[in-house]
Each structure stands twice: as structure tokens, then as C-alpha cells.
Amino acid sequence: MRSLDDIETRIEHLGGAKDAAAAVSELVQLGEEVLEHWLAAHNAAPSDETREGFRLLALHRQGAKGVPSFNACRETCRELVYHYNLITGDPTHEETSQRLRLAALVANHLYLFVRGKLEVAELGEFCCSSRPIRAKPDEPQDMQPVEQQGG
Amino acid sequence: MNDMTLNRVAYYPGCALEGSGHAYDRSTRAVAKELGLDLVEVENWNCCGAMEVKNVDPKLQTYLSSRVMAIASEDMGFDKVMAPCNGCYHNLKKAEYDLTHDAENVAVTECLSRKAGHPTYKAGNIETIHALDWIKDAIGEDGIRQRIKKSLSGLKIANYYGCMYTRPRHIFPEKDQGPGSESTSQPHFMDDILEAAGADIVEYPLKTACCGGAHTLSDSDTSTKLVVNLLRAAEASGATVIATECPTCHSGLEMHQIRAETNFDIKTDVKILYFTQLLGLALGLKPRKLGIHENISDSHDLLKEAGLI
């Protein structure tokens, strides 16, 4: 697992890479590493499972257990997967370089949000989970590997 | 089919629309008048509890939001209250949810309402809607197309919804109900409305991503970095304008765009306008009536080039 600083640098570099399919695969992997940092900071072993075919989505689900405000980056993870599918599904498409650029910005947003939340845990509490800052957690945090399930 | 019951609704502007979001209030009222919709301001309204009160006592926030709804329904006879501010909308929706599902919250609200001497909120008597719901359901895309005087066709717009319009999902039971309803994962009402007004809507992958809004003072650098990424993504999507529907998002995007340039030497050119300002321009309203001169983001040249002013 790379350091968060290294991840940031690498994301910036990949936005203009020549091999878009390889680059977007690495962006998804970097997204996984960002989420691994989040889980490691909460003493949880990152899941190796997948959700809808992506470990990234399983890791997000694991990271959001007991932390509703972590859903603030749920759609960001899904957008990264969407751009991965767009690029790898048709790597020669005329918009591939544009799609890669956007995928890098989406990955960067995931990085920025998670890093911000690692520094200030309350990021997203007010708004996305509608919780008072000083509220006690509803449930003990449970970040065990996710089970495959719908919803 | 347009919902005629929405031609006259209770209007809850909230505190932000009297201050930093004044242009949103101004443009919302101007658009309503032009569309022939009647906004009746909630009498003697109070703060929804916003952010600060929630930290002191969440039940007090629920009560404050309930008071607005109780006056609108029990005193004024409305069954819909329209709140354009995402924060107000979110808090009133949360109060609706809490007062339907939490007996302790109901008891506190009833007690405080009695002491304060106003009617108590009654679940089911009134529904909170957002300005997007209101225009989409009262006028609809076809109605907008029929009323357009200046097409927004010269503008490429990224629609930014922010977080409080869709999260947490459980307080918005009317969303994600299939065709015609709003989506919490891919909201589209603003896209639909502005597209009907002729705009070229770009695919914007961060339309509900975090802007760090609540941390804009306590952790400014994180907020600036998140906003810069939102602005860059909009530009990378081809947008020349970001449309907003929340005064907190709007102010955050405007202020951090400047802060990014002054503190981090990162310049972005995308302009930031309320969706009601854009719709108002398309309806032929003058920029001053829409408060465009009140925006920090200076869109004058862009709007002039697009033939909108």
C-alpha cells in the first residue's frame, strides 16, 4: 500500500497516460488503496471480496459500516467504476482520453475526501449523515469483510 | 401531467436566502412570478436549526423545523412547503421523518409547541419540497419549453446538487421511486429543467460529491482542495457554467474558487450561477431581477457572449 502522498502524485500523473485501459485499472487500484488507508486507520482488515465485480465497491461498503457519513464518497466510487467500464469496454473510443482525465479527477476526489476525513473525522457528518458532531455512535463500528448481498 | 396543486405553495426561504444566498431568493421569486406560480411566505418563520442547533440538541432542531411546517399547514392551510435551500430542505425532511418514526421526538415537539403557543406539527398534513421538485412538477419540461424566450443553447452546464439534496437516503422516501421520481444516486431534475431551457448539459461525474461545505471555516484547505477538484472536473467535462441549487454549495464554490487562486495559484474559469438565475434568463428576465450582479463569480462576459444579457 502506497503512502497517501504517493497516491496523490500517481493519480495526477495517470490522468494523461497513453495507455488508458492500464491507467484506469491503476486508478481503481489506487482507489482501493485509499480505502485501505481508511480501514487501516480504523483497525479493520481490508476485505478481499468484491461487490458487483469490484473490490473497490466492497471496500467502500466495509468502510461505511457504522459511519454513515462515509457514504459521501459512495457515488464517487461508483463513478470511478463507471469510467473504468467505459474505458475498458471500448478503449479505442474517441472520448477515451477525456474519460481517463475525468476518471483521474474522480479518483482524486475520493482521495481528497478520504484524506480529509482521516484528518477531520467529522467531514460529512453534518450533511451526508445528518448527525450532530458530538453525537455518540449509533452502533459500534463494525468493519469486518462484507458479505455479498443486494441493496 | 403538471400538478396544479403546486401553483400556490408555502415558501420557506430560510436564513441563508436573506444573506449570502440573497440572489437565490431573488431569482426564485422572479421565476415564480414569471411562471405564474404563487409563493406565499411562511408567516413568522424561524431558522430550521441548520447546523449549530443540531449540535446543541438534535430534538430542538427537529422542533424548530416542525414549527415552520406547523405554521404553514395548521395556520396557513398549505399541504406543501417549498424550501429552495438544501440545508432547510434537508432539515425539514429530516423532521418529517423523525416525527413519523420517533415517539420521543414527537413528545418533545408537542411539549415545546404548547409552551411556545403555536399549533403542533401533524405528520402527513404537509410535505416539504425543493425548488427543483416544485418547478419540475408544477411546470414540467414541456411547460418550460413553451415559455422560453432566450434559449440557453450557448451554455454548457454542469449541474452540481451537493450532498444535502439526496443524503441520507432514508429521509427522502419519495425519491428513487422509478420513472418520474428523483434519484438519490444520479439526481437529474436540474438537468431536466435546464435542458428544457435549451442548455447543453454535460456529463458531470461529481454532481453529488462532497465540497467540504460544513468545514469551510474550520478546515479551509480541505474545502478548497475539494472545491478545486469539483471545478476542474466541471471544466474537464466541457462545462463553462456550474449550476447550483443550494446557497451553501454556491457560496463555497465561489469563495474557494477565489481562495484557490490567491492561496494556491490555481485558476479556474468556470462560472457559478443558481439554476433559478439561468432559468430566469431563459424566461427573458433581466439579470438584475435575478440578482446576477450579487454573485461573486462574474459571468457577465459569458452570458453576453451567449446572447442572454
What does this entry look like structurally?
The complex is a heterodimer of chains A (151) and B (309). Chain A has 151 residues and is mainly alpha-helical. Chain A has a single domain, classed as Up-down Bundle (Four Helix Bundle (Hemerythrin (Met), subunit A)), CATH 1.20.120. Chain A has helices at residues 4-14, 20-41, 55-64, 74-89, 96-119. Chain A is elongated, with a radius of gyration of 16 Å. Mean pLDDT of chain A is 88; it is low at 147-151. Chain B has 309 residues and is an alpha/beta fold.
Reading off the top of the CATH hierarchy, the class of chain A is best stated as Mainly Alpha
Amount of helix of chain A: 40-55%
How confident overall, as mean pLDDT of chain B? 95
Could you tell me how far the N terminus lies from the C terminus of chain A, measured between alpha carbons in angstroms? 29 Å
Report helical residue fraction of chain B.
40-55%
Mean pLDDT of chain A: 88
**First-to-last CA distance of chain B:** 32 Å
Query: So how many helices of chain B?
Result: 12
Any chance you could write out the topology, listing elements then pairs?
The complex is a heterodimer of chains A (151) and B (309).
Chain A: H1 4-14, H2 20-41, H3 55-64, H4 74-89, H5 96-119
Helix pairs in contact in A: 1-2, 1-5, 2-3, 2-4, 2-5, 3-4, 4-5
Chain B: E1 8-11, H1 22-35, E2 38-41, H2 52-56, H3 58-75, E3 80-83, H4 86-101, H5 103-116, E4 127-130, H6 131-138, H7 140-147, E5 156-160, H8 189-196, E6 200-201, H9 220-236, E7 241-244, H10 247-264, E8 271-274, H11 275-282, H12 300-305
Parallel strand pairs in B: 1-2, 1-3, 3-4, 5-6, 5-7, 7-8
Helix pairs in contact in B: 1-11, 3-4, 3-5, 4-5, 6-8, 7-8, 9-10
